[in-house]
């Protein structure tokens, strides 16, 4: 069940990698794999009960142009995700909420539970595949290299081996082929339960060597590397060392524009140059206008733009757009100020140049700050 291992992927991030971000990403890169926000069935059920269809859509629905796209589940039912290209189990989130709800990084202490969860998911996928005559969807696991004091390489290899073997499902009627977890996404830091998620992305040190040892010790499996990787040069470096795939996290939101070159640099594609900044903005605003008519909230639709065009439109336009009542007002404002908007996007606007010089001066000051 290791089909679909991508050379480059975007990590699942709550409140970021929803379908609106996915729309923007896919306009820049056709081949980078996107992992959507983590989903748990209790959240879906609660939003259905409260009659909040927009929140249900946020977690489960994806745009038709987003593929390849994976869903990450937190100890939930695979039947929620049969329209995705991959079903990934979260065994890496160190948050207090995840620990109290018995999913995420704490499951690295309970590999038997992970085996049961993945085996159940694979069973559901297998039954769905047999009944619909559709290809089986791979079930994968995203974990860290350890948790708390269980941080030895021996513990990691024991965990990987138990999940691979314990997730095996063989249909009793022979309706489909046996399947098991064959692809692991490895965040190359251990998780520290009790430490908040932000600090868990920086306090535990990175150890890429654990990842590369896994490649040597489990040649029958596939592994994607995650953690501390921020640009395509680093992706190429790790792929050159033999990584099966590389996943970018926060930098995928802070610098989405780098994916405009991903298809050619990472995948060797010779497609035409991607869409330009102004064209992307106009395209997305038209998309957002249609999504608002379907019930999506303006604040959620504007959220991807705050990162995509950060430093260019922030302050000059985005702050103003957030106060407007509808996406139609936003679109009208863009049309009325099209020349100025284009200047902002091409870094020629005086407001942006002032912000850039101020940021540069702060960087220069920080070089000498030893406090």
Automatic annotation (TrEMBL):
Its cofactor is FMN. SUPFAM superfamilies: FMN-linked oxidoreductases (SSF51395). Keywords: Flavoprotein, FMN, NADP, Oxidoreductase, RNA-binding, tRNA processing, tRNA-binding. GO terms for molecular function: flavin adenine dinucleotide binding; tRNA binding; tRNA dihydrouridine synthase activity. Residues 10-333 form the DUS-like FMN-binding domain. The keyword NADP applies. Gene3D superfamilies: Aldolase class I. PANTHER family: FMN-LINKED OXIDOREDUCTASES SUPERFAMILY PROTEIN. This is Putative tRNA-dihydrouridine synthase. It comes from Planoprotostelium fungivorum.
């Amino acid at each position: 069940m290791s089909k679909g291992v991508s050379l480059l992927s975007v990590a699942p991030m709550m409140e970021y990698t929803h379908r609106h971000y996915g729309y923007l990403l896919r306009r820049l890169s056709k081949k980078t794999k996107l992992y959507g926000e983590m989903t748990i069935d209790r959240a879906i059920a609660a939003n259905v009960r409260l009659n909040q269809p927009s929140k249900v859509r946020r977690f489960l629905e994806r745009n038709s142009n987003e593929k390849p796209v994976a869903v990450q589940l937190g100890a939930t039912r695979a039947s929620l995700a049969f329209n995705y290209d991959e079903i990934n189990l979260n065994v890496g989130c160190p948050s207090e909420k995840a620990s109290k709800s018995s999913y995420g990084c704490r499951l690295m202490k309970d590999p038997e539970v992970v085996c049961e969860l993945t085996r159940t998911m694979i069973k559901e996928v297998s039954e769905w595949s047999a009944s619909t005559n559709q290809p089986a969807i791979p079930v994968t696991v995203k974990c860290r290299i350890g948790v708390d004091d269980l941080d030895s390489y021996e513990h990691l290899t024991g965990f990987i081996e138990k999940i691979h073997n314990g997730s095996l499902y063989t249909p009793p009627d022979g309706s489909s082929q046996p399947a098991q977890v064959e692809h692991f996404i490895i965040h190359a830091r251990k998780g520290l339960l009790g430490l908040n998620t932000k600090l868990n992305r920086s306090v535990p040190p990175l150890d890429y060597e654990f990842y590369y040892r896994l490649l040597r010790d489990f040649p029958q499996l596939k592994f994607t590397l995650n953690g501390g990787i921020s640009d395509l040069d680093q992706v190429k470096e790790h792929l050159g060392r033999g990584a099966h795939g590389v996943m970018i996290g926060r930098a995928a939101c802070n610098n989405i524009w780098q994916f405009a070159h991903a298809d050619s640099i990472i995948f060797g594609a010779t497609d035409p140059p991607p869409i330009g900044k102004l064209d992307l903005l106009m395209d997305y605003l038209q998309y957002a206008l249609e999504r608002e008519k379907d019930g999506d909230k303006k604040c959620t639709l504007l959220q991807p733009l705050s990162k995509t065009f950060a430093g260019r439109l922030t302050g000059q336009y985005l702050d103003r757009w957030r106060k407007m009542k509808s996406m139609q007002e936003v679109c009208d404002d863009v049309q009325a100020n099209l020349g100025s908007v284009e200047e902002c996007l091409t870094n020629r606007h005086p407001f942006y140049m002032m912000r850039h010089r101020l940021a540069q001066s702060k960087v220069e000051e920080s070089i000498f700050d030893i406090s």
